[in-house]
Amino acid sequence: MRAWTTRGDGIDRLTSDSVPMPVPGRTEVLVKVSAVSLNYRDLLVVGGVEHWSPQQAVVPISDGVGTVVATGADVARWRPGDRVSAAFLPRWRSGPLTRDIYVSPVGGPVNRGMLAEYVLIEQDEAVRASHSLDDVHAATLPIAGVTAWHAVAHRSRIRPGQTVLVHGTGGVALFAAQLILALGATPIVTSSSDEKIEKLRSLGIVETINYRSTPDVAAEVLSRTGGEGVDHVIETVGGENLNRSLDAIKVGGSISFIGLIAGRSADINVYQFVTKHVTVHGIETGSLEMLEELAAFIDKHGITPVLDAVYPVEDVQEALHHLELGKHFGKVVVTMPGTEASP
Ligand SMILES: NC(=O)c1ccc[n+]([C@@H]2O[C@H](COP(=O)([O-])OP(=O)(O)OC[C@H]3O[C@@H](n4cnc5c(N)ncnc54)[C@H](OP(=O)(O)O)[C@@H]3O)[C@@H](O)[C@H]2O)c1
Question: CB–CB of 109/52 below 8 Å?
Answer without folding.
Answer: yes
